[in-house]
Amino acid sequence: MSPRLQIDAMVVEHRTKRGVVHAVAGVSLELEAGETLGLVGESGCGKSSLARAIVGLNTPKSGAIRIDGRDTDPSRRGAQARDIQMVFQDPYGSLNPRMSVRELVEEPLSVHRLGNRAERAARAKALLERVGISAAMHDRLPHQLSGGQRQRVGIARAMALEPKIVICDEPVSALDVSVQAQVLNLLLDLQKEQELTFLFISHDLEVVRYVSHRIAVMYLGVIVEIGPAEGVWSLPLHPYTRALMQTAGDAERVAATGPMVTLASELPNPLHPPSGCRFRTRCPLAIEVCARDVPALEDFGDGHRVACHRAREWAGTATPAAHA
Ligand SMILES: Nc1ncnc2c1ncn2[C@@H]1O[C@H](COP(=O)(O)OP(=O)(O)OP(=O)(O)O)[C@@H](O)[C@H]1O
């Protein structure tokens, strides 16, 4: 059976005055129905550029997007544009400040000419109630809502067209910690009810681990490690993944499974990415071959794949860290 979502050799470039930014440099991913793939990486690694290309907000330079095995129409019009929706980090920026909550949720239904006026109103009401926005708030404007309520409206809007796939781009990063779990749990409940596929982008490794079946790690436009969430978590094999986990306060666990990697310098200039392995200029383990050859994603078992010339050296000997 075809995967629900297949991204094949996606390339996204941004033209700037200083040159071309290679934001996504050939990313391929497959996601099953009902699956969450968490995507992590530092700011500037290309996560949003990839997400925006998948929902049609960026035009990729090349690559294919398939839903249930069918190529999507690059013009992204019609029914198929409904299949992939996005939940943004900052719902305030993506919600028209002059529209009421009710109008905001009705809008996608009107754009796609679904139902008559009364049916759209009823559907918007049901969606808002499902995401926890009570009837008393349906006439309010976005600025009259809390951050968590605004994100719930953003989620209702994304769900209005009954998508198969939802790209969640840092959906809880702008929220107070106290409401983050509520919004995450709402997303997980909706996923179960509707067998939704999530691409879940976050720089917060704990959040990604909480929601994801699999985790992909992106560095400077490429996927450097991907695998089952607990596998990647307990035995991170790419030096960049190890560095991210170490920075996130997991030094002890990382140290138990191989070399420590500290991220010293800044992300290289994306206008001129390094030759060979893109991470090698920041990698304390880099050797000659790393500057010469681009490492392929190699399978280490159970679908845990890593693009590193040196990962084998500790992969065979290390014992996965105990699950916290
Ligand atoms: N519209 C644009 N025009 C020019 N360059 C862009 C544009 N959007 C992104 N970039 C550049 O592309 C690269 C990848 O950025 P992107 O926002 O996709 O990364 P990210 O990992 O999502 O980061 P963040 O978490 O900060 O959003 C960066 O170098 C960024 O400066």
Automatic annotation (TrEMBL):
Source domain of life: Bacteria
CDD domains in the cross-refs: ABC_NikE_OppD_transporters
Gene Ontology molecular function: any one: ATP binding
One Pfam family it belongs to: ABC_tran
Keywords: ATP-binding, Nucleotide-binding, Transport
Compartment(s): Cell inner membrane
Spans through the membrane: none
Topological category with respect to the lipid bilayer: Peripheral membrane protein
ABC transporter domain ranges (all copies): 5-245
InterPro entries: AAA+_ATPase, ABC_transp_ATP-bind, ABC_transporter-like_ATP-bd, ABC_transporter-like_CS, Oligopep_ABC_C, P-loop_NTPase
Family matches, as NCBIfam families: oligo_HPY (TIGR01727)
Entries under PANTHER family matching the protein: D,D-DIPEPTIDE TRANSPORT ATP-BINDING PROTEIN DDPF-RELATED, TRANSPORT ATP-BINDING PROTEIN
Similarity section: Belongs to the ABC transporter superfamily.
Protein name: Oligopeptide/dipeptide ABC transporter ATP-binding protein
